[in-house]
Amino acid sequence: MNRALLIGVSAYDFTRPNDPHGVPGDLAAVAHNLPVLEEALLHSGVFRKGEIAVSGSPYLDAFSESLRAATDEAEGLLLFYFAGHGAVPSAGDELWLQMRNARVVPGSRAVFPGADPFSSVLTVLATTRARHVVVVLDCCNAGNAAQVCEAVADRRRFSVLMSVQANNRIDAGDDTTPTPFTARLARLLDEGIDGRDTRLSFQDLSQALSAHMCTHHRTLRNEPWEPQRWGDTDFLLPSPSSQTLTTPPATVPETQPPSVTPTRKASKRTAERAAGSGGERERRSGSPQPGQPVEATRGTVGLPWWQDLFTRLRSWTLPVPTVAGRVLLWLRRRPRRAAVAAAVLTAAGIGSYLALVGIGPGQSSCGPPLELRLVTDPDIGSTVRKAADAYLTSTANVTPGGCRRSGITVYSAGSADVAAGFHDQSDPWQRPVSDDLDPQRDIGPQPDIWIPASSASVARAQPVEPPRKYLTLEPGGPFAYSPMVLSVPQSIAEVSVGDRTDNPLTTLREHLTRRQKDADVRRTDPEYTDSALLATMGLYGTGAAGVSEGEASVAQSGPPSLTGSDLLCTLPDDSRTDDRTAALVPEFLMVSGVDCDRTTRSRRMAEYPTDVPALDPTFVRVRWQDADRDRSARDEAVGRFRAWLTHGGGTAQKPAGGLDVFGEDGFRSISGAHGFLTAPGTDAGTLAHPARLPAPADAVAMATALRHYRNANGPGQVLFLLDNSGSMGGLWEGPGGAPGILKQSLAGLGDRDEYGVWSVAARGGRPSDVVLPFARHRRADAEKTIDHRTAVRDAESDPDAALRAALEFMAGRGKDDEHPQLILYVTDDEDNNHLTGRRLDALLDAMEEKGIPVVMAALDSGGCDQGKPDARISEASGGRCLDTKGDLVAGLRDEVARTGTGDE
User: Fold this and answer.
1) Is residue 489 within a helix (H) or strand (E), and if so which, with residue range?
2) How far is CA 837 from the centre of its chain?
3) Count of H helices and E strands in the chain?
């Protein structure tokens, strides 16, 4: 059964100016969104009567109940829609959906009482049995949800449509009509793109929305209004004309029943009722409403009548007598089709289908299975999810009556975050106490099972002793193996099989640069995956003396890729880079492949370093204090899954256990000589029996490598340049304003880092003024100083002079040490007339000479276009250019964090 939950908050109990802690005001236009969108969903055929729940201006508790009910009931498609106020904290890393009783109380433990963080909404949605989840957000700052979505484990199951880019507020429009975004969304669902009577895909829908909104609307920051889409999966929606029954072939004459379609007048009356009442009651679509028309039976465009019938029968979940009665009545009126229908139903095995779903004679409906939560390492997440999916339908997890015993929600999170969460953050994991430390947000819900990629991570994560210990970890031992390899383009790889093994990583790197002088080596983020941290151990060698050399050997512009799959997909973006760059990745990725098109990548060969520890995925039972209500049932479910996961004996097509799935993806046996669980194809570039395979990692050595990585080259130095010229007035206030964006990036700096802030619309002939002196600061003190001493001035900025002064200042600070340095310039590019011709060329020469990376943060969607001054400055300095086409805030935090020693 499909389910849709439409939430529209048009009326708020606490609003400014009457309440200083209230939301900005009511949103009368939102009251019109719900009936218009509901009608469009019904008219398009996406949902039927009774499948849509509509809730206007709910309180937070009522919203939570509605969300849980829709999540529990959905089995096919689950749609969650929210329109109302959306708020972001100062860090900008969360989006809060504000319900009727929402308030904003700065400085309190809960800054947004009466609101639900989007991360919590996603956590609830992830527990659904629905095959696919669609989220639509029509609120200010909706694009900030994209960063939250990155924590979603199964990206393929989620599609998110956000009304506007991150850190942008939008106008709700006329009080007498729906909001602009929802009005356009409903029209596209109702009429299609340019009136074309064809099926829409989710991607088509989002692109059409973006094209219209960018052309016809602007945000309150006066930027183009750009809706955002998140998710890896596209899918088709019914065609706009699917409410009309398909005409049968001419050889089978048939009189069509009259079709009753919702009228525009009825929709208008519904909207007027919602606007007048504030839409405060929740109702289920299909419940009797005054003047509401009856929906006609809908067919499916383009399908033969018999296929349409079969499709409908498969989707019905009515009791058998009701289904049979309707079918018999339908056939009685169509005697010429009765015989054909009988044959179709017999061939389809409808009796078996009804028994399977638990609605046949003498069958009871299956209750919801016990849901297990599993967190795993991002590099092995795809394989673990495939194994969990196979287990759900295996005989080990199905009762004799055909019901599932348990479900499994698989999600992944950064390996360092997970280890730290288990080690000393189990208290805030259960009860978050601040925005700075919230494992529920940063990692996910409290898991029952943890599968790290390395057994050494289990030892690193063992909890501290009471009173800070609220969980126990019970490792069951590793069950698979995959060595780390240097994945080298075939054109520059070792020719001899013997030379590809039995050498440390430093030797393999030396041989590579001899064969190809400009060859590079890339490694992924050591804080995000175990495999990257294991690679780092090989890069550093046995002592801290090799840290600087190791980091220099994998240095690159911009942040490292998060996972091995991301890295192998990114390299082909530049064929020259792909042809000369080796990647330190787990061997199994060379067998299973990655999501990007294989035909676009250079063929690669695996070289096997002997001093880089191997992956050995390990099954760990996680027990939480006081979580005893269903302990025995949960223990049984976990034990059953572990027994299945750690055994094999079947095939990839019919796995008898999890090792069959891991074998298909290129993993090896944990025991003996570590042979492949399933022999890979000859084109994988791997060796079946390398001369010497390394052992798994040591926990102490692994923790030491992480500490050295975080402190590589010591504390960092960052100089922020803040454009405060007159043109910045509309880009100044709130978390999405220039000072707010700058403050969010401070999370990447620690107490030992040095940093300062200059404003660059100075007077008296100076290119800049000091806002925050260059020194070490506590973050809270720095933020207060920035708030107090920054203001827009009625003056122009001179970016050329400001950047030259910043280069000279930072070059003087770094003469006597090797601390990493960074200059970060936040601007709207209005004064880039100072960056032209010979002045710009001279500045670029100075950038190359000084070698200090400059990050240009353009509060303009085209600031980083090829050839623009911002892009040329970033390229010449070895820095990075960021604009509002992407997630500018997240990019800034990443860049600062790479230089500093903060927690992010």
Assistant:
1) strand 484-489
2) 42
3) 31, 25
Q: Structure tokens of 679?
A: 């022999």
CA 67/CA 69 separation, integer angstroms = 5
How far is it, in rounded angstroms, from Cα 600 to Cα 583?
16
* Contact partners, residue 301, CB within 8 Å, separation at least 6: 197, 199, 238, 239, 241, 242, 244, 246
Alpha carbon 518 to its chain's center: 35
DSSP tag of 582: E
Helix (H, G, I), strand (E, B) or coil at 419: helix
- Alpha-carbon torsion 146, 150, 151, 153, what sign? positive
**Residue type at 348?**
A
- On the CB side of 294, CA atoms within 13 Å amount to 4
Q: Tens digit of pLDDT for each residue in 810-840? A: 988 865 566 788 999 999 999 888 899 999 9
CB 303 within 8 A of CB 34: no
Tokens of 46: 């996406």
H or E element that contains 739: helix 738-745
| DSSP 8-state code for residue 465 | P
Distance CA 163, CA 226 (A): 7
Q: Name the 3-class secondary structure at 177.
A: coil
Under DSSP, is residue 225 helix (H, G, I), strand (E, B) or coil? coil
Contact in structure between 738 and 728 (CB atoms under 8 Å): yes
pLDDT digits (tens, 9 = 90+) for 632-658: 999 999 999 999 999 998 887 889 999
Q: How open is the CA angle 204-205-207, to the nearest 5 degrees?
A: 65
Question: CA–CA separation, 76 vs 48, rounded Å?
Answer: 13
Q: Contact at 8 Å (CB) between 861 and 885?
A: yes
Helix (H) or strand (E) holding 395: none
Determine the Cα–Cα distance for residues 713 and 253; give it in Å rounded to an integer: 82
Residue type at position 56? G
Written as six digits, the tokens of 571 are 């390299």
Task: At 879, give phi and psi (nearest 5°).
Answer: -100, -150
Residues forming a β-bridge with 80: 5, 135
Instruction: Note the pTM of the prediction, 2 decimals.
Output: 0.57
* CA 273 to chain CA centroid, nearest Å: 38
Termini Cα distance of the chain: 42
Q: Which two tokens stand for residue 136?
A: 């639509």
- Residue 724 CB contacts under 8 Å (≥ 6 apart), including other chains: 738, 759, 760, 761, 790, 791, 792, 793, 797
Tokens of 193: 């793109």
Instruction: Check residue 566 and give its pLDDT.
Output: 87
- 822 sits in which H/E element: strand 821-827
Of 136, 129, 155, 137, nearest to 70 (Cα)?
A: 129
Residue 370 — φ and ψ, nearest 5°?
A: -65, 130
Core vs surface per residue 267-282: b (16+ CB within 10 A) or e: bebbbeebbeebbbeb
Q: Tell me how crowded residue 625 is: count the other CB atoms within 10 A of its CB.
A: 13
The tens digit of pLDDT for each residue in 515-555 reads: 988 899 999 999 999 999 999 999 988 654 567 788 888 88
Place of tokens 């910043």: 806
- Asked whether the beta carbons of 613 and 478 are under 8 A apart, the reply is no
H/E stretch holding 662: helix 658-664
Close Cβ partners of 408 (under 8 Å, ≥ 6 residues apart): 371, 372, 373, 374, 388, 391, 392, 641
**CA atoms of 223 and 860, how far apart (whole Å):** 7
What one-letter code names the amino acid at 318?
L
Sign of CA dihedral 762, 765, 768, 771: negative
Structure token pair of residue 297: 């039976």
> In a 3-state reduction of DSSP, which class is residue 547?
helix
